[in-house]
Write a structure and sequence with these properties.
Helices cover about 45% and strands about 15% of the residues. By secondary structure, it is an alpha/beta fold. Strands 1, 2, 3, 4, 5 and 6 form a six-stranded mixed sheet that branches. α8 links the parallel β11 and β12. Bound molecules: nicotinamide-adenine-dinucleotide.
Amino acid sequence: MQKDISLFQQMQEMEHEQVVFGYDEATGLKCIIGIHNTVLGPSLGGTRFWNYATDADAVKDVLRLSRGMTYKAAISGINLGGGKAVIIGDPYRDKSEALWRRFGKFVNSLGGKYITAEDVGTSSKDMEYVAMETKYVTGVPEFLGGSGDPSPVTAYTTFLGIKASLKKSTGNDSVGGKKVLVQGVGHVGQYLVKYLKEEGAEVYVSDIHEDKLSEIKKEYPDVKVVPPESVYDVDVDIYAPCALGATINSETIPKLKCSIIAGAANNQLENEIIHGNMLKEKGIYYAPDFLINAGGLINVYCEWTGYNRERAMGTAEMIYDRTLEIYAKADEENISTHQAALQIAHERIQQVAKLNSYL
Ligand code: NAD
């Protein structure tokens, strides 16, 4: 009973519309879909496949992630609401065609209120199975008429966020000669390394999986590998979190030596208010995660509304100016960049909500 009350309290505090649980014994599927806000359009967000320690951790994650999607769409000028799904399990062991198709049926049962895509632990191959059971899926392979893996576009907007942060802090947006640490070299991280190397950055990488590090070292032998436990102690100019969230917290901020934090991971600030302000006080330029990792969402939105790569990359370009706009607003109003970005996103949702009340 206590658990139910606490879930609704969480929904109330984070302003969620709906949370749906799915379970299937035959395939081992245990999933949760969080629908945060559908004022701007149907909720869209990827499916995270992760070995959560407890069900409560999975609920917490889906609530935080789906809320982030609402603001990401709002700030990118996209007509989508915020949603996200999590599947509880080991992505290296528990995936099967049957599980994905069962999940697809489950998504389908929501009638388009939630549209899925890839996220951590999932791939466009997985979305191919989901697409066998529902049309409410994006990030499906190109040969099925989809846009494929959204990660290169996410890496591109993250790169633009890094460049805009450099422009703001130094007046020059080149990463050439800058020391950049990419934490997590999975789908997004590896493309980000490519952009950084192309422009002459000195790249440091960290990952908990050896195979990911070997892939990167094979492509770029001169990248330096940092053990996961030493990430916050390394002396770099830019820290780019591209693994999981909450890595910016009271324990890590005092250790950080970088002047810029700009990465693709969702929900980087463990506490948006406290840690957003701590970064501001420490003088670290923080490019809000939900803004600069919007490339993937922009890409799947273009897939949903009529895909072509030029349109997706062209739309993604706006992230550079938007990042500068947020730094300027934060300065003017003496607030954290995270707060500045949230305010812009909120304003757009409120304006569209008012429009929705007219016939
Ligand atoms: P991914 O699973 O392909 O890559 C994540 C990588 O991080 C993996 O290689 C994993 O081994 C590594 N990792 C996990 N814990 C780590 C740790 N403690 N230290 C170092 N490395 C660690 O996921 P992805 O698609 O690349 O997404 C990365 C992040 O970006 C996630 O937070 C995701 O939500 C966010 N994001 C992704 C997209 C996208 O288009 N894929 C879009 C928006 C946001």
